[in-house]
Structures are given as C-alpha cells and as structure tokens.
Amino acid sequence: MCPDDELLSAYYDNELEPETVASVEASLTDDPEWRDRLEEIRAASHALKAQPEPDFEAAQQRVWEQLRSARHEVREPDVFRKRVSLPMPLAAAAAFILLGAGVLITYLAITSGVVQMPTQASRPAVDREITVRLEDPDEVGALLQALNAREQVRQVTIEMPENARFAYQGEARLIRAVDADFGIRGGAR
Amino acid sequence: MTWDSQRDSEFQRFYADVFPILVRVVYRITNNMDAAEEICQEAFIRYYQRMDTIPDAQQGKYWIIRVAKNLALNHEKRKGRERRAYERSYHEPKPTVESGEVTALREESADAVQQALDKLPDKLRSVLILKEYGELSYKEIGSILGISEGNVKVRVFRARERLLEFLKGEDVYVP
After folding, report:
1. Partner of B133 for a Cys bridge, out of A10, B20, B24, B43, CB 3.0 to 4.6 A?
2. In this predicted model, what pLDDT tens digit does every residue of A28-73 receive, in sequence order?
3. What is the pTM of this model?
4. pLDDT, tens only, B32-45
5. CATH architecture, range A1-72
6. Chain A within 8 Å of B80 (Cβ-Cβ)?
7. CB of B162 less than 8 A from some CB of A
C-alpha cells in the first residue's frame, strides 16, 4: 500500500488516536516504503530543530528590562487613536463616502430646521462703531472698565479735544504698553 | 492604568512562561534577533494593555502568539518591499549568478534550511514554525490561527513536503 504521508506526518507529531497509531505502526512494520517516508519526515523536522539558536535567555532578560523601563508609558488603548490601515482605493472610497454623508447630514439638518444658518441679527457686532461723548475725564476709566468686562471690544479710539492741555503728575517715565492698564485693572494713572 | 504589584506579578509569570516560545517563533519568521526582540516587546505591551479582557493565561498565550506572528510576517513583508525598492533604485537585480561568498554560505546546510523555510508560503510556514519551534499541538495551533485541527494537520504535512522538496533541490545534507 502506498504510504499515507499526511497520516505519517501526524503520527510523527503524536497527533493520532490510539487505534490509528496501531494501524500506522502495522504498516511501518510491514512496508519499507512507509518507513522511508517516515524517515524523510523525521529528517525534515530535525533539519529545522537542528538550526543554530541565538541566546534566547539573554534576549528574555533584555526584553523584560525594556518592558519594565517602559511600564510608565503603557496605557490603555485609546479607541479614538487606533490606527487603521486601508488599501489606497478603499481609503479613497471611504473618504468619499464620509464626505458625502457629511454633506447630506448638513443639508438635512438645515432643511429640517435643526440647524439655523446665522442671520444678520444673530451675528456678533463686528466692525460696529459706537461713539460716546464723555464730558467728565473720570468717566473714561469707567467706560473702559465696562467695555473690558464685555470681552468683545478689540479696539477703542479715544479722540481728544483739539485744545487738550495736559499736566504732568509725578515723575515722567516710560512704560511698556502691556503694563499700561489705563485704569482698567489697577485704577487711573 | 498603573503597573500595580498584582498585575506585575501575574504579567511576570506569563512573560516567563510564554517568552521562550514566542521569541523562537518570531525569530524563525524574521531570522533577525533584533527584530524578534522588538516584536516580542511590542506583543507583550499589547498583551498587558488587554490582559483584563483575556479569560485566562492559556487564551493569552494563543492571543500573543497570534499577534506576534502577524507582526513578524508584516515585518518580513515590509523588509521585502524595502529590499525590492532598493534593488529598483540602484538597478541591482537579484543576483542570478551567485558570488563565491554566497555559494560558500549556501554550502552550510543551516542557511539552506532557513532559506527553504523562507520560501514556504506564509500559511504553511507559520504552521510549521509553530509546530517545530513553538512545540505546540495541532489543537493549540488551530486555536492560534483560527483553523481546524484537520486543517493544521494538512498544512503541517504540506509544509514538510515542500521543505523536503526545496532541500532536495538544493542537495542539502539532511541528517
């Protein structure tokens, strides 16, 4: 009978049921061809196992040390940062579908009234000009404080009277613009 | 997540049990010790991150071998692409006529066996490496690869058959 190589391979690996083992061993006893085939399987296995090996014990120690030193960096996997690798055509198709879905959802949300496009009335006051005439110089500080509290005013122009006259108070000095609070935080100077 | 003492000792036991198998399997796929160490490290980090969700150490062993095997095969594919790109860039096709040095190396049966192993398709090579170097049963290999024991049996046999064909073709002395 021609040897059953698959059966012999499993026999060599001790992966057969006892009754099958008995049958294979009977064939091995009776047929030299079966024995030759088993010898070849054994040779293939030995050729692999006889391969020289590096020092795996040293590697085990090295990797363990690396793991211990890296332990503070070990974190739970972040589901939002999982890397996904896609072939280029598939990635392009996915991007196209996502873009289309985004446009469709936005369109449906606007047409159904879930989302309202900003109108002129709801827009923030951009480039709006407000003129305030102040007779009392002390009111300047109060106005600046009020504007600052709103946190929406980015620019204030103070127009001085043509005949404004200034008087020095204390020592003349240079200060940085960022340090000049003009009474908004620390009171008028 | 902290590296607490209970986790640490559990992980350390698992590492001591599984590393010897894992590094042998990965080394035989990559044939490079530095790469094998890096891949093992990466696999154990991934295991540590998920060890709470893995039912027991046995399942953990199958899981980590599967992960490391895939990392190793990916590493091999990447290296193959890089090698081919290099060859294209410098117009250096693979040598068809072997140099004296290569011939000398080929005379060593160990190299020839490794080359024969490398020539096997991934699905045959993985099974054979898990069997011969991982010393795992067909059932364990089936659990790792997600295939039946019968399928493992067929693949192991075919891998050995192909390996012998390559070795005979190279006229390698097989003890």
Report:
1. B24
2. 999 999 999 999 999 889 988 888 889 999 999 999 999 988 776 6
3. 0.60
4. 999 999 999 999 99
5. Orthogonal Bundle (1.10)
6. no
7. no
- Chain B residues with CB under 8 Å of A49 CB are 132-133
- For residue B62, the distance in angstroms to the closest alpha carbon of chain A comes to 19
Regarding an ipTM greater than 0.90, the answer is: no
Higher pLDDT, residue B55 or A110: B55
Q: How far apart are the C-alpha atoms of A33 and A46, rounded to whole Å?
A: 20
A-B CB pairs within 8 A amount to 105
Which of B149-154's residues contact partners 24+ apart within 8 Å by CB, and which partners?
A: B149/A15, B152/B127, B153/A6, B153/A9, B153/A10, B153/A15, B154/A6
- List the domains of chain B with CATH numbers: 1-94 (1.10.1740), 100-175 (1.10.10.10)
Can you tell me the distance from the alpha carbon of A96 to that of A90, in angstroms, rounded to the nearest whole number? 10
For residue B45, the chain A residue with the least C-alpha distance is A74
